[in-house]
Amino acid sequence: MTEQTNCVVFQTLGTLSGKLVGVATLNMEKALNALNMEMVRALTTQLTAWADDDAIAMVVLDGAGEKAFCAGGDVRALYQAARELPGEIPEVTQDFFTREYFLDHLLHTFDKPVLVWGDGIVMGGGLGLMAGASHRVVTERSRIAMPEVTIGLYPDVGGSYFLNRMPGHMGRFLGMTAYNMDGADAFYVGLGNHYLNSADKQPLFDALSSIDWESDVCANHGKLNALLEAMSSRCAQPMGESILEQHQAQIDALMDGELNEIMTRVKAVEDAEPWLSRALSTMLAGSPLSLHLVYQQSMLGTELSLSQVFQLELGLSCNCCAIGDFAEGVRALLIDKDRQPQWLYETVEAVPQEMVKSLMTSPWDPQNDPLRTLGQ
């Protein structure tokens, strides 16, 4: 059975057990399957229905085409709203982030197995979807990043939760540098938990139809684990070594201490290997406000619950669009494409702590927070 909106294709695969596998395919190939409001609404509606449907044993999320699972969020509508109402939080901005974070939270708390086929580009909002899945498949073609520092945002979509659970200062490094991970890197930091080759996609779908799915959710998680592990062991192209794992100690030393200490250290790096040189160049060209926000985010630790993380990020993201560097970052990178953003502050040192505090302060009282019922 196949259902289709303009931007997401939903289908169910029959299996030998009589149970069904729900498949949601992001269907905006020319836009690298970037998330827009219609996609978020459609996914939320269908996933909620599949969660309550006893016939559905598990869910798969994938992207149309060969290039990307999902290259992020479609931020042009947010940019237009920010330009039209500077200093304010437009309804479209609040609504988009609220619905996107609700969807991400739904995936994190989904009882049934959810497999994301993380082949090709997985960035920003796409990583928010992937991070919430129970089974996160990366391949030899995966290119995974949180590039928000380049547009005046910060790693949202739950980044305050999953980045702070990575080894050492790795989450801080990924957020500040927009480093582009391959499959092995993503596996090392925990964003991927299974590895297959891109050519294994159709064999995987065929195998999902042959599993003896049950009504027991825990048993189905185990069966999917066993299948993926068996297929991984037979990959024609084994997973390579992770650059991030090899250089964990160097990254920790670079990212340790106060933000001004980190900036001094980064600026002093000379003759870096290409992987690090690219990352640090991106960091130094990024929004100074964003670097402050990533640093504050990295100091949150692991004490906040998933619901608290999304509530915090909702206020912060809306504030970034209203009074931060977001509109200018999007203009420079995606609208005019001059790649010459005029950030509000020229350097990290010039950013007032009052500005950082205002961005980190929710614009709503707790009883009016749009995500106040999350997790209840």
Overview of this protein structure:
By secondary structure, this protein is α/β, with parallel strands linked by helices. It is built from 17 helices and 10 strands. It has a 7-stranded mixed β-sheet, sandwiched between helices. β3, α1 and β4 form a beta-alpha-beta unit. α2 (76-84) crosses α16 (326-335), α3 packs antiparallel against α15 and α6 packs antiparallel against α14. It is globular. The model has no long low-confidence stretch (mean pLDDT 96).
Topology (elements, then pairings):
Blueprint: E1 2-4, E2 8-14, E3 20-26, H1 37-51, E4 56-63, E5 68-70, H2 76-84, H3 91-108, E6 114-118, E7 121-123, H4 125-132, E8 135-138, E9 143-145, H5 159-162, H6 170-177, H7 183-189, E10 194-195, H8 201-210, H9 217-233, H10 243-246, H11 248-254, H12 259-267, H13 274-285, H14 288-298, H15 306-323, H16 326-335, H17 353-360
Parallel strand pairs: 3-4, 4-6, 5-7, 6-8, 7-9, 8-10
Antiparallel strand pairs: 1-2, 2-3
Helix pairs in contact: 1-3, 2-16, 3-4, 3-15, 6-14
